[in-house]
């Protein structure tokens, strides 16, 4: 095998493997199969715009390649559609459920509140 990730045994639990799933590691020359997260961020944002939303928030994940690319896609789609990018409409960043709950509550308190949110 020339690169890649193989995990076996009792120590490779889903919780331990989750940070590795669908992520790119550019410092390692290994084959990668995953999602185009930049495109996903753009598509989610475009869908909300097509539904009439103009104040779109993003409930983001932690600082890993997937979440960073989705945030970049969100920003790119807003720019292409000439919609204002509001920094207070981006919240989250840890990826855990409780933090997401509190981040969403803070988004809903924004003035004006977002009229669309994607995660």
The largest sheet, given as strand count, sense and whether it forms a barrel, is: 3 strands, parallel
Order of helices and strands: HHEHEHE
- Largest beta sheet: what is the strand line-up? 2-1-3
Helix content: 25-40%
Question: How many domains make up the 3D coordinates?
Answer: 1
Uncertain regions: pLDDT < 50 for 5+ in a row?
1-5
> What's the pLDDT, averaged over the residues?
83
Cα distance spanning the termini: 36 Å
* Gyration radius over CA: 17 Å
Strand content: 5-15%
What's the architecture, going by CATH? 3-Layer(aba) Sandwich
The CATH superfamily name is Response regulator
CATH topology: Rossmann fold
| Secondary-structure class | mainly alpha
Count of DSSP H/I helices: 4
Gross geometry: globular
Number of strands: 3
Structure description:
With 119 residues, the chain is mainly α. The chain has one domain: Response regulator (Rossmann fold, 3-Layer(aba) Sandwich). 39% of the residues lie in helices and 9% in strands. The protein has 4 helices and 3 strands. It has helices at residues 14-17, 37-50, 65-80, 97-108, and strands at residues 56-60, 90-92, 116-118. A 3-stranded parallel sheet has the order 2-1-3, sandwiched between helices. Strand 1, helix 3 (65-80) and strand 2 form a beta-alpha-beta unit. Helix 2 (37-50) packs across helix 3 (65-80). Mean pLDDT is 83; it is low at 1-5.
Task: Tell me the layout of helices and strands.
Layout: H1 14-17, H2 37-50, E1 56-60, H3 65-80, E2 90-92, H4 97-108, E3 116-118
Helix pairs in contact: 2-3
